[in-house]
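[Q] Does anyone have a clean structure-token version of this?
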Amino acid sequence: MGSNPKTLSPSNSIYPQGCWVNLAKITEIQYPENKFKSDIALLCILNVEHSKYPKKLWLSGNHLFNEDGKFEDYGKRANGVEKFGSWRLGHLFDTLGIEKSAALTEDGSKLNNGVEEMMIGLPFYILEYESNGVAKRSVWRFFAKHSEGKMKLINDWKNQDAKFIPKDYVHAGGGRLEDIYNEIDDGKEPWEK
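[A] Here you go.
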């Protein structure tokens, strides 16, 4: 049967199966080649608690611009940016306590002076999940403030709508097969029907 990504790991820990929540700090910010022609592309190098190696956090996406072509807001469906919105970067600024409306240059392609220095070293929580992608672990799209603690991300993961569970999550069986069996299961053994 498929595993349900909202259930606890086999060890009955507080973590969902194949998920870990750790404290992270940005140690470096780079502007990688923007292959997808997004309005912004950042690579944050993270120092993650309990991790031997640095972790890469890619943040890119498209913004909402005003009539003058100046950055107005981070892209999301609610403001008309249908694909590859930059909302996740705005979410990171909120998480770090940085005023997101003044964080980017007018064209939205880079951080304003001083913002990078503000971001480096600030603690926040990330949730990593087992991935069937190139990396064995991927960083989930949401973050939590240091003051909110680990449980914020754990609860957000457990309470997310099944359609938003990452497609590369190893345990994303979503319990679909299990759900089908449960719907069919009337409590009788097959030979009793």
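[Q] Thanks! Anything notable?
[A] Residues 19-192 form one domain.
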